[in-house]
Amino acid sequence: QVQLVESGGGLVQPGGSLRLSCAASGFTFSSYYMSWVRQAPGKGLEWVSSIYSDDSMAYYADSVKGRFTISRDNAKNTLYLQMNSLKFEDTAVYYCAKGVPGWGTYDYWGQGTQVTVSS
Question: Buried-most residue among 48, 50, 74, 116 (CB within 10 A)?
Fold first, then answer.
């Protein structure tokens, strides 16, 4: 069965960095675009970033552009999110999601990893 397991979250000071990972299994990882989506306390889901199946293109929300970098290692079935220059407003649970054809639609989600930016 499809499994997405995020890791790498934690507590970090403003301006700090974290690298999230999402280990995928149960499907052909290299055939699907993948995304990171986050949910801040008391708010709805916010799309963060997406990457093509072959790593040829990546897209970012304006709120993270220039600070976050999405990447993937298809040989390791792993998705990454490098987060730099973290801000208080980046505090959220971060989910990785498996895309389905049509872009912007997802059929599987991980359990999420908490990122807290606090001084």
Answer: 48
